[in-house]
Specification:
Number of domains: 2
Low-confidence stretches: 28-34
Mean pLDDT: 76
Number of strands: 7
Shape: elongated
Helix content: 40-55%
Structural class: alpha+beta
Radius of gyration: 31 Å
């Protein structure tokens, strides 16, 4: 029977343990690097979304009145989200928590209280004015139009106006101070088709 070399066996054991430790550390480092990369990516997305929402608020501020509770509440929620974002890095599981925070931010932005545009609030000198009406940052960027593609007729004694907006194919609309829109209607004859003598059809949806 051949005698086993104790030193040789010990070296093999130590080498095997060393390889295992290196492999485990390598996997741990890769996992940590992946987590850090994921956190950096979602953090950047959240920061960009908050900045965009703040920019959109500034862009649409003139379209809303001070007594618009939905708008004021939305602004407050966005600012609260911005403050919460500053402390997100202190969470126990920042990557997981930040991903959940991003989802809540998307849900909040989906609820932005948009309104049909009618120009800056307040009375003005009577007349028709060329203007570029605002609806939302994302929607407005899709239009390749001139600097003043819309028309607003203002009055010097009341804050109502006629609006001719590209978003409704320039159908004349009567807009009130609080953002309500009214359009005229007309009757279109259809004979007896479908059992109807006539029908009432709005000028716009």
């Amino acid at each position: 029977m051949k005698k086993v070399n104790g030193d040789y066996v010990m070296r093999r054991v130590i080498l095997s343990i060393g390889i295992t430790v290196v492999w485990m550390l390598s996997g741990f480092c890769q996992c940590a690097a992946g987590t850090e990369g994921e956190l950096a990516s979602v953090t950047e997305r959240v920061r960009d979304k908050i900045e965009f929402m703040r920019a959109e608020i500034a862009y649409l501020e003139s379209e809303h009145t001070p007594d618009d509770k939905k708008w004021q509440n939305y602004k407050q929620q966005v600012e609260s989200a911005g403050e919460a974002f500053k402390g997100a890095s202190l969470l126990a599981e920042p990557a997981k928590e930040m991903a959940g925070f991003e989802k809540k931010l998307d849900d909040l932005h989906a609820k932005i209280p948009l309104r049909l545009p009618s120009g800056p609030k307040g009375t003005g000198r009577f007349g028709a004015y060329y203007i570029r009406l605002k609806y939302s940052l994302t929607w407005d960027k899709l239009w390749k139009v001139s600097d003043h593609p819309d028309v607003v007729v203002r009055f010097d004694d009341v804050d109502h106006r006629f609006v001719f907006w590209r978003g409704t194919s320039y159908i004349p609309c009567w807009a009130t101070y609080d953002g309500a829109w009214y359009t005229n209607e007309f009757f279109e004859r259809r004979g007896h088709l479908g059992g109807c003598d006539s029908m009432c059809e709005p000028m716009s949806d």
